[in-house]
Each structure stands twice: as C-alpha cells, then as structure tokens.
From TrEMBL:
Keyword Disulfide bond: yes
GO CC annotations on file: plasma membrane
Keyword Signal part of the UniProt annotation: yes
Record's protein name: LamG-like jellyroll fold domain-containing protein
PANTHER family, per the entry: 1,3-BETA-GLUCANOSYLTRANSFERASE GAS1
SUPFAM superfamilies: (Trans)glycosidases, Concanavalin A-like lectins/glucanases
Signal sequence range: 1-24
PROSITE patterns for the chain: EF_HAND_1
GO MF annotation list: 1,3-beta-glucanosyltransferase activity
Assigned keywords, A-Z: Disulfide bond, Glycoprotein, Signal
C-alpha cells in the first residue's frame, strides 16, 4: 500500500510537466503541432478559421474549439495510403455529436473522419472511392472531466484498407466493419481539426485538443502504447542504482559486456520440439538432455554465428545443454535462462510470492556457476495473457528479480547475472500505473521485448529510450515463412524481412533473439502434420501469423532418429550478418585460401543433392545442395593465405552485390597457386608444380598424378640388369655379369674381399667398408637380398642382419 501511495504522488507531479516533442535521434515523425498558440499553428503551416482559442490542456496549452472554428493544414503528406493520427481530446459541452478531425472532405468519397456521437461514443470512419465506409468505434469513452488519448490508424492491404481505433494506448475491439474494401483515391491533402464533414453529418465539434501528430505509416500497437505513455508523462526514467557486476557478465549503462568485451546478442530462440510431439514438460526435459539433438543443432547454431540462445522453458536437472553451448570457451554460445511463471496464480498473495522467490533462488543456485549463463529471463509475454491487475504482475516480477540477485550476491559476492522481464513489446511497458516504470522495477536490470512490427521499427527504439534507461534485448522478432494469401511458402521474403529487422536493431539495443530456430509443429492442429493457420495480425507481409512456420530450420521426419534440419534462406542471410568471419573461411583463420577450398571440395555435391550437416556451411545460398552457385560465392571471397578477405566478399553475402556464376569446377587461374595449369578444384597439391593431374608418376611417396594413389605398384620396382645385387640407379656398370670381381664394361678395377656371410656387422665387414668408402658406387658381392622402401636401399643378409 505504501508503494501505491508513493507512485500516485509521482504521477500527479509528472502530469503538469510539459514537453513539446519526442522527435529526435533516429525517429522522424512527419507532423506534430503542440497547439501551444497561434504561432505554433502558423509554424506548422496551419490556418485558423473562425474562433479557436488556446488554453491549458493535456501538455501545456491546447486548442479550444467552440463549434465555430477549425484549423486547416495542407500538405501532400496527408495523402498517405497508410497512416496514423494521435491526439488528446476532452469534450467541453454535453452536445450529442461533433467532429474532431477529417482528412479530405469527410462524408464524401475518399475521406476519413474522427467524430463523437450519442454524447460519449467515438467513431473513426473511412470512405472509399465510391463512398462505401468502414468504421471503428468505442462506446461511452469520452469525458468532460479528463483528456482521452486517441490514436487512429489505417493501412493499405491487398483487399482494401484496415482501420483501427486506440484509446489511452489500448486497441478497441468491436463488431464494426474494420476492413474497407475497394480503392481510395488521393484526397485534397487537407488535415482539418475541429470538424468532420458538414451538417447534417457531424459538423464542428466542441472540445479541447492537444498534441496532434501525424505519421505516414500505421503505428504498431506497441508504438501506440508508447506514444500514450510518453505523451501522458506516465513514465519515470532512471538509471540503475545497483553496482555493476564484477563477474564475466556485466551491464554498463545500456551496454552488455562479456569477459570485458562489448557483447552484441546475435541470438535465436531455441526449443526444438520434434515433429509429432507436444510441448510438454516431459518432452522439453528430454530434448535438452538428448545428445543426438544437441549434437545436431549446436554446431549448426555455431556455424550460423549465433552467440546466444533464448530459452522459453526452465532447464531440467543436469547441465548438458549449457556445457555443449559453452564448448570450453571455444566459440561459446550463451543462454538467456527462462524462469517460467504461471498465469493462474495470485501475484499478490504473500505465500505465492514467498514460494516463487524460493523457486527462483533454487534455480539460480543450480546454474549460476555455469559459464554459458548470460541472464535470467522472467516470464514470457505475461502482460499479454494475464487477465488480472498488471500492476500485480510487474510487482511480482520485481520480487523474483530481487530474489535472483540476492542469491548470486550471497556471502559478499559481487558477481551476478542480469535479470530481465520478457514483455510483449511495449504494451503496458514503462507506465507508473502498472508499476512497470524504472523506479518500480528497481531490481530488474534490463528489458526483453518480443517486438513484432510491420517491416520497419520506425520510432520504436526512440520511444523506448525516452521511457526507460534500462538496456533492451529484442527477445522475439521476425516473420513466418508461409504466405497465406498465395498458399505456399516464401522463404526469400522471410530472409529479407528478418535481415532488415536485424539491421535496424543492431545499433539501437543490445541485440536480439530471432523467433525461432526450428518450425514448431505442435502449435496448430495435429502435431504430426505441418499445419497452416495461426491468427490475423498487422505485422506480417500477408497479415497472418502462421505459428508453425517461424523456424530458420525446416523439420523433416527421420523415422526413429532426430528430425532432419533443413536451413531456410534466413539462416544464410543472418549468418552473413552474425558471423565475425567470412562464411567461406571455414577454419576461421582470417583468410580464404586453399585449405578452405579443400573443405568446399569435400562438401561439393552438385545440384539437387543434399550435403551432410558438417557441410551445411558450404551451402551458402541455403538451397539444400552445394553446387556451382555456392562455388560462385566462394570464388568471390578467395584471398590467399594470410590476406584478409575483401569487402566484395561481404557485399555478395549481404546481398549488395551479385556472386559470379562459374560454369564448372574446372581451371580457374585465381586458384592455381603453383601455376601448373591446374587449379585447386583438381590439383591435389597446389604448392608443387610437378604434382597435378596427368603428371608422370615416379617413385617418391607422393601422388604425382592426383589419382588418389601414392606410388602405384609398378613404379617402385627398380631393376638390377646384371643381377649383381646393385640396383641399376646405383650401378656404374649395370650390365656386368653377376659374380665378376672386376666390372668388364668400362669400370675401373677394384679388388674386393671374397664372398662373405655377415654374422657381425662391425667386425666382418671391415674389409668391405675400407674399400667401399673410396668409391661407394662399386658393387658389393655379398650374399644379401635387397629391399627398397621408396627412399633408401636396405640389405638383408644371410643371417638377417641389416646393413646400409
């Protein structure tokens, strides 16, 4: 109760603070008039007609319309097929109906208007080119005692236009027709305040209006809520008062550091439920301990450049997943550890609070020592699904964050992992009324937002930065791979949108975890069938969210073995952004050379043949084979040993340049390092010009002709023509008859010791070696057999003693 009283005082103070605009930083809002006075109107291109005065309103002054005056702005920006208008409004009389604003000439074709009727009902109506209308409305919402924050949005769709109405940050659902079919022709480009059509329609209205903003895009639900919180001054932004951790994971301002290095979360949600199974606790416990599943997935995550996985479920007993992720510190992957919170408990009950504080304490104690732990994630979109008082939820979450911190800092420890609440976007975020502001959540170190938007984040991050000083991770984002309109998949669109989302967020927050690693067949209908369905939404290309199709990996049944994972295009598009190494730099030594090409050669399958998992890294275009297209990507990155890859390599992988398309894996001079006319696609030793296909094979323990065989059997049979025991290459007179003491074909006379049998190397060969040292190449008439090992000659004498 003390907490509630304190915050009520803060709110009353904040509501009298005036600010003019949130426009700054990376966000550009096309139009904003604070309606402070006539000068403000004039500076924004407005013209006052009739009687309009300026009095104290929601934020400083606002415009007072008495039913006779209007303000008209003329600008081509208002001819937007998708857009939004935001404002504060309060009635000043009890009149039954009146206009608030119109774009175009409302009541005529190609127009839209915002008005009130039946005293306190509010309506937003849009008319197409033939005068057919769609309307969104809310009953009994307007007041003469307090301001209502109103946002209207419209969006061009394939079938027409979708319209929405929001009051005080919340979308108003009703039974009105909210999809306008047909076309909408550009109107006269007028935004008129204080009126919505002529009498006997709704005419001029009576009321106070403030902070009018126009956006040439459809605000997302999250942006609408943030606009409401910020415009209403319902936030408290405050830096944390907690001392930074002294451990390997720490926050500093809005930055995250791991082992003293600035860390950008390049992550993905990981919960690979096999097809045919449901998302039960038993299944989840099983998959996180299954070596076959983990050994299949973690190398693929690592190859993608992922450095973080976000978990939705608590880990079972055992630490197998975390150990495999960390990998002894070699290319480690970190985990945002989920702590699950049910929706059907009383968040205000002291016993429940004590129970869950104890539960998270036990969980943190179990895993806090694991090097792969990055943060503790509390709940998941509880604000979206909880039907009770949201203030109770955020208070409860703060209690859990406090318990986690106290467990890690017990016994005077100063090392701890950050805590995070995973929220549904900016809905209910940062609002003192919900205890979701920075002061109320003083034990929560950072926010996680599941932030789904229509292709562009627009002002999302700017709103966030105005409302909260806490670091931010986008804990879910992305689109699914199924096009409901066309009834087939569109992986290229998924790849393009997901990459675009990443590029927008990378400099605006700590990073993000994509939704999701693999398709989730358990979400709709039969778990053994890949269903389509889901729900309508404003933030997908086809305005439909197919929940089973978000994976960067498709699932294919593999009978009793773990499912086969097949990468979609988005796997490759994000790999090009995530990776700190060029994708063809397989050994990650900073260059792309013949060693890397050796791996590519092994992986080359040709068109239409799937590679093995350990060769997915060579399928650069994620089309499930390693072919000439992939060779083109590789060629673009060849740098040679110890030479960094050129920017052209990244241009190709990031889609800003085209890759070459070779016609075959045959000769390419860029890869002929020894200049023997054969490149590394066929040359088994591109550092030796004497070794290449079609070269003459000689006896040298090498594969001279690159046929896969070292020293073919007939090459190393060395003749002894005169059968004197001296092989021809070492015999000065190879044609002398065997047994002659003096070589008779032009060789100088030399008398050797008689025929001997070696029984003692040191004593009985003295007479031989004393003469042999003067001329090593004379024949040695011993009763020995020769053996050749390809490099030197060995003698095997009668008593099997070896002599050189």
């Amino acid at each position: 109760m003390i907490k509630i009283i304190k915050l009520s005082i803060v709110v009353s103070i904040l509501l009298i603070v005036s600010h003019s605009s949130i426009f700054a930083d990376n966000c550009t809002i096309p139009f904003h008039d604070g309606l402070e006075d006539q000068l403000s109107v004039n500076q924004n291109g407005g013209v006052i007609n009739g009687n309009v005065t300026f009095v104290t309103a929601a934020n400083g002054n606002g415009a007072n319309f008495d039913g006779t005056g209007t303000i008209t702005y003329t600008n081509p920006m208002f001819n937007s097929e998708s857009g939004s208008v935001s404002l504060f409004f309060k009635k000043t009389t009890a009149d039954a109906y009146g206009g608030i604003l119109q774009i175009g000439l409302f009541a005529a074709a190609n127009s839209m208007g915002l008005f009130y009727n039946f005293g306190t009902n509010i309506y937003f109506e849009m008319k197409n080119s033939v005068g057919t209308s769609a309307v969104a409305y809310a009953e009994n919402k307007l007041s003469q005692t307090q301001f209502t924050h109103i946002v209207v949005t419209w969006d061009k769709r394939d079938a027409g236009f979708a319209i929405k109405l929001f009051l005080d940050g919340k979308y108003i659902k009703n039974t009105g027709g909210q999809l306008l079919t047909g076309s909408f022709v550009l109107n006269p480009a007028n935004l008129i305040l204080g009126k919505a059509g002529p009498d006997p329609w709704y005419g001029n209205g009576r009321g106070l209006m403030d902070e009018v903003r126009f956006f040439n895009w459809m605000l997302s639900d999250a942006e609408v809520y943030a606009e409401y919180v910020y415009a209403s001054n319902k936030f408290i932004r405050q830096e944390t008062e907690r001392n930074p951790s002294t451990g390997p994971i720490r926050l500093d301002g809005k930055n995250l550091y791991v082992n003293e290095q600035l860390f950008k979360v390049k992550g993905i949600g990981y919960q690979p439920v096999p097809h045919g199974l449901s998302n039960t606790r038993t299944v989840l416990d099983q998959i996180y301990k299954d070596d076959n599943i983990l050994n299949r997935d973690i190398p693929l995550l690592r190859s993608m450049g992922v450095n973080t996985v976000r978990l939705w479920a608590e880990l079972p007993d055992g630490e197998k997943l975390l150990d495999k992720l960390y990998n002894g510190g070699d290319q480690p992957i970190y985990a945002i550890m989920a702590f699950e919170v049910p929706l059907d408990i009383d968040y205000t009950d002291p016993t429940t609070i004590a129970t869950y504080r104890n539960n998270i304490t036990t969980y943190v104690n179990k895993f806090k020592g694991k090097s792969a732990v990055l943060a503790w994630g509390i709940g998941n979109e509880t604000n979206l699904h909880y039907t009770g008082n949201l203030g109770a939820w955020y208070f409860f979450a703060n209690e859990l964050a406090d318990a986690a911190y106290l467990e890690e800092t017990a016994n005077n420890s100063t090392s701890y992992h950050p805590t995070m609440v995973s929220n549904s976007g900016m809905l209910d975020f940062g609002n003192v009324d919900n205890y979701s502001d920075d002061i109320s959540l003083n034990h929560v170190d950072m926010w996680g937002h599941n932030a789904y938007v229509k292709q562009n984040y627009h002002c999302y991050f700017d709103y966030y930065d105005k409302i909260s000083a806490k670091p931010l991770i986008i804990t879910e984002y992305g689109i699914d791979a199924w096009n409901t309109v066309a009834n087939h998949d569109y992986p290229e669109v998924q790849a393009e949108w997901n990459k675009n989302f990443w590029l927008q967020m990378t400099d605006q927050c700590i990073g993000g975890t994509l939704m999701a690693y693999s398709d989730e067949w358990w979400k709709n209908g039969t778990v053994s069938f890949h269903n389509t369905g889901g729900h309508d939404t404003d933030v997908q290309p086809d305005n439909r969210s197919d929940e089973e199709w978000y994976g960067v990996m498709e699932i294919e049944d593999n009978l009793s073995a773990p499912d086969i994972m097949l990468p979609r295009k988005t796997y490759c598009s994000l790999k090009a952004e995530f990776a700190d190494f060029a994708p063809p730099d397989f050994d990650r030594d900073g260059d792309v050379d013949q060693e890397d090409f050796g791996h590519f050669q092994v992986c080359y399958t040709g068109s239409g043949t799937r590679p093995t998992y350990d060769c997915y890294d060579s399928d650069f275009d994620c089309d499930h084979d390693v072919d000439l297209d992939d060779f083109g990507y590789f060629l673009n990155c060849d740098s040679g040993p110890m030479i960094p890859v050129a920017s052209a390599c990244w241009d190709v992988f990031r889609g800003t340049a085209a890759a070459p398309h070779p016609t075959s894996l045959s000769f390419n001079p860029e890869f002929d390092n020894d200049q023997d006319g054969f490149d590394t696609s066929v040359d088994c030793n591109d550092a030796n010009p004497n070794i290449h296909p079609n070269a003459q094979e000689i006896c040298n323990q090498a594969d001279d002709n690159c046929d896969g065989t070292v020293d073919e059997s007939n090459v190393c049979v060395i003749p002894d023509s005169d059968k004197d025991g001296i092989l021809d290459p070492d015999d000065e007179c190879p044609k002398t008859p065997a047994g002659a003491k003096i070589d008779q074909v032009g060789c100088s006379a030399s008398q050797f010791c008689g025929k001997i049998t070696i029984t003692s190397w040191r004593n009985q060969l003295v007479c031989v070696t004393s003469d042999w040292k003067d001329n090593e190449r004379k024949k040695l008439p011993l009763d020995c057999q020769t053996r050749w090992n390809g490099r030197s000659r060995k003698w095997l004498c009668e008593n099997t003693t070896r002599a050189n």
